[in-house]
Design a protein that fits this description.
Blueprint (H helix, E strand, L loop, with lengths): L9 H21 L7 H15 L5 E5 L5 H8 L3 E6 L2 H10 L5 E3 L12 E7 L7 H14 E12 L4 E7 L2 E8 L3 H8 L4 E9 L13 E8 L3
Parallel strand pairs: 1-2, 1-4, 2-3, 4-5
Antiparallel strand pairs: 5-9, 6-7, 8-9
The chain binds S-adenosylmethionine.
Length: 225
Amino acid sequence: MTDEAHETSTHESSTRDSYDAIAQTYTEWIADELTAKPHDRAVLGAFSELVLGTGSAEVLDMGCGPGRITSFLAALGLEPRGLDLSPAMVELARGLYPTLPFDVGSMTALPYADDSFSGLVAWYSTIHIPDEELSTVFAEAARVLRPGGWFQLAFQLGDRVDHFSDLAGFDVDLDFHRRSIDDVLTALAPHGFVPATRLEREPDRAGRFPETTGQGYLLVRKASL
Ligand SMILES: C[S@@+](CC[C@H](N)C(=O)[O-])C[C@H]1O[C@@H](n2cnc3c(N)ncnc32)[C@H](O)[C@@H]1O
């Protein structure tokens, strides 16, 4: 796979430029986050076991950022590749994890053939997809996922859009779409995804990585043929 160009929308350009600007700082800040989040590790562990149970280990980490989740999945025995909109993020991921494959691209137009993967992860990445583009993203997810494959999402819970123009002192133009698990399930269902596990966690307000919202974890499966 190559770093394919595709037509970007205005919000996609600003999301890409914003993550390009904060890539290095974000990467350093988030590096140890999984060690502080036992629920996250448990969710990814269960996902990995379920994917391996299909008899195939190929998974895609959509919106992989600096590749920390991609690398965690590899350590659990999966064969992951990462994809991210931000070239700077992908460059960092390639530097940190040189044995893993990473591509620049958008989850609105995945540069992979139909039925390429047995698992997909969208770990705090659909949070930047506006409601009107969720259907495109989930249609793409359904296209590249094999029948019976698993799709794990994680996102902040809520029912509003938070806009940031400054993050850690960097000029950004980023929308964070907070959603309920029901809303995300409703958007997934028309694409043949059926719910498997839904988990809501209260915000971790005091930890090293404080949160202001609850966290949603949603595992769905693509219906078998
Ligand atoms: C909050 S970060 C999460 C990164 C990573 N999943 C993690 O947990 O560390 C969101 C990531 O989603 C990526 N992203 C946003 N919109 C995207 C799109 N349409 N296609 C691919 N990646 C996207 C951003 O570039 C950014 O790296």
